[in-house]
Amino acid sequence: MAKPNLTDIERKAIIDELLKLSDNGVLPLGVYVK
How far apart are CA 11 and CA 23, in angstroms? Predict the structure, then answer.
């Protein structure tokens, strides 16, 4: 599945969002960042 290339800023924003949603570093199933 091809994904568009993200800028570093966009990538960091997504990672930060995932870290906020994660529970002790583990993401619950079905979590998607918009």
Answer: 20
Which residue, chain included where needed, has tokens 């529970």?
23
pTM above 0.70, yes or no: no
Tokens read off for 32: 């998607």
Cα(2)–Cα(13) distance, rounded to whole angstroms?
Answer: 20
Amino acid at 32: Y
Q: Is residue 14 within 8 Å of residue 33, measured between CB atoms?
A: yes
In a domain, 4, yes or no: yes
Below-70 pLDDT ranges, the chain: 1-3, 25, 27-34
